[in-house]
Structure formats: C-alpha cells, structure tokens
Amino acid sequence: MPFFRADHIGSLLRPKKLREAFRAKSGIALKEIQDEAIRDVVRLQRDCGLQVISDGEFRRISYWEKFVRLTKGLEVRDAVFTFHDAEGQESKFTAPYVSGKVSRAEPITLDEFGFGNTKITMPAPSTMHFYRFTDWGSAYDKAEAFFKDLGKVYQAEIADLAEAGCQYVQIDEVAVAILCDPAAREKVKAHGEDPDRLVDLYIDAINEAVKGRPAEMTVGVHVCRGNYKGMYLSEGGYDSVAEKFFGRANVDHFLLEFDTPRAGGFAPLRFVPKMKGVVLGLVSSKTPRLESLNELKHRVDEASRYVDAGRLAISPQCGFASTIGGNPVTEADERAKLKLCVDAAQAIWG
Questions:
Q1: Which of 21, 95, 237, 329 meets the CB 3.0–4.6 Å disulfide criterion with 33?
Q2: DSSP letter at 93?
Q3: pLDDT of residue 182
Q4: What does DSSP assign to residue 253?
C-alpha cells in the first residue's frame, strides 16, 4: 500500500549556494552547506504539509552519481541513449560502467538519513547496466552474475538504513520505462538484445536488491521516463511491461508517471496485484504550470476504474532535480506543486 497519500519522488531544487559549493569541491565546507540546505528543505516540505520527507538528494550530483562513486567496480562512461525534448532537441549524458567486481566499500546513503527525513532513494540496479547495454562492463561474463553481486550492495545498504530507523526506501527505475517505448525497443532489438529479456532481468535485479529487507520497511519503485532539465528519455504507456512488472516486482507500491499523454492511459493498472498500491505521478515537475485541483480529482477518479481508490496516492511525476542543475522551475513553483499534492490528497481521501 502507499506509505503516504501525498508523496514526492525525492530530489528537490538545489539552492545556488549548494550548487556553487559542489562545483568548488569545497570539502568540509561543502558538508556544512549541505547540512544547512537540508535543514531548510526539510522545513519547506513540512511547511507544505508533507509527511514524506527527503533530504532533497542534496548530497548527490545526480540521482545515481553517489551510488556509483561509492561502490567498488563502477565507473562512468558515455551512455548509448540521449535525452530529448518536445521540439526534438537532444542531449547526451553519461552512465555507469562495470569495470571490476562490484562490492560495497562503505555506506552509500546512510549519511542522508537523520535530518527528520522519512524516505531514502536509490537508483535501480538496471541503472548500472541499461544505459550502456551494448557494452555495459568487462568484469562479468553474464549480467546475472553482476546483478547477484550488486544485489549484495543494496542488501547491506538497506540493512544499515533499517537499523538507523529508516522505514521507506524508494528504488528509481528508468530502464523498464524506456523499454515501454516502441522506438527504444527497436533500438535494443537492432543491437541483438531482447527487450522482454531485459525487463525480466531488471525485475529479478530489483527483487535481489530488496531480498531480506525487514518486514517493517516499505519499498516503492518509481518508474521514470528520464528527467534532465525538463527533458525526457522515452515515451509510451506501461502496456508492454505491466503484467510482469507489477506482478513480479517484490515491492509494496509503484510510483508511476502520468503527467503527460506520453505516459499512456491508466488501463495497465489493472495488473497491479491487490496487495500493492500505486502513487499517481499527476503533477509535473518539469513545467511551472500549476495543475488544477479539479483536474487531479478527475484523473484519480479515472485511475480508480482500474485500481481501488483506497490503494492510490498522488505525487509529482518525478523529482525536481534528478541532477544538480534542476528542472526549469523555481522554488516557488516547487513549493506550490508539493502543496498541491497535499491539498489534493486531503480533498480526495480526507
């Protein structure tokens, strides 16, 4: 079931002082600035009425950068995909590459918990594979063996978070969303790979990552179509992956993007098992336009034709700053959209 009726995806706009400190690589001073900025952004979330609180991912340059930096055996190279916008403009990006046997050298997200936050986010295991699926690594003969080792990194991280008192972990899954896109599926096939095999591989990798988690810990999977300065990686509804992904992923709920027609309709939600919930990403983090409360009520009502309303919640479709640069919105926009999610949740569920 959803942990909160009003949720959000985790990353929030970094203040200018924090962005400058990252660029200056200012060591101890950076940590002090991070601490101050995190206290401020926790206050912002509480002022909006949110119960789910993150640290804004303020200790990361991007949603996956810190995980890669602190995990042995991973490095960064160019991705095989590109971001694009509605006008067709493209932007290249970098991606993880497996250069050695992976292991957890030290805690990765543990220092992000303890500022009053209730949620910790992590990149999905597929992040370390799919963006360079044609040449993802040199240290393993088979991806299954890699994901087995990588799963141990997640398991240890989740165990430490649980011991610290964290009860909500979110896995950010982009590859499965890209594999909903017919164009991306054709690209994968053109390189001799089977997109359905990759979906199965990535579901198994998530299940391996969360294996053995404490019963009191809630795990949600955010399915993301890419989020870089308002640009996206893919489009297409969940139809081609819904039955197996919703049915086989061993998690409590799914945080799904439904902010634009690119995401398709709600019909695939009929495959979500009755013991699992759905957080509807109906509020866009990519544009300043503020959705209306009536619009959100109508869309939740639409979705409830396929999933009982008692198993639904609401959120922005993605974070506001998956990378340090952030999306083309202001902090005032961000605050208004977070508050809107709270107001909508209260109006719909009470």
A1: 21
A2: E
A3: 86
A4: E
Rounded alpha-carbon distances, angstroms, from residue 228 to 256, 319, 321, 327: 17, 10, 8, 7
* The pLDDT of residue 209: 98
Q: Whole-angstrom Cα distance, residue 291 to residue 339?
A: 11
CA dist list (Å): 173 to 18, 47, 159, 193, 301: 26, 29, 20, 19, 26
The single-letter DSSP state of residue 105 is -
Question: How far apart (Å, rounded) are the C-alpha atoms in residues 277 and 254?
Answer: 6
| Cα gap 280→78, rounded to integer Å | 32
Residue for token pair 């959209």: 337
Rounded distance between C-alpha atoms, residue 160 and residue 147, angstroms: 20
Order across the sheet with 253-257: list the strands.
120-123, 168-173, 218-223, 253-257, 277-283, 312-316
State residue 144's pLDDT score: 97
Residue 270 to residue 66: CA distance in whole angstroms: 36
- Do strands 71-84 and 90-104 pair parallel, antiparallel, or not at all (unpaired)? antiparallel
Does the pTM exceed 0.85?
yes
Rounded-to-integer distance, Cα 261 and Cα 319, Å: 19
Q: How far apart are CA 247 and CA 208, in angstroms?
A: 16
Tokens representing 11 are 């990353």
Contact 201, 128 (CB under 8 A): no
* pLDDT mean values, one per 10 residues, the chain (350 residues): 86 96 84 96 98 97 94 88 50 81 96 95 95 88 96 98 97 92 87 93 98 95 72 69 96 94 88 97 96 97 97 96 92 98 97
What are the start-end ranges of the E strands in 239-276? 253-257
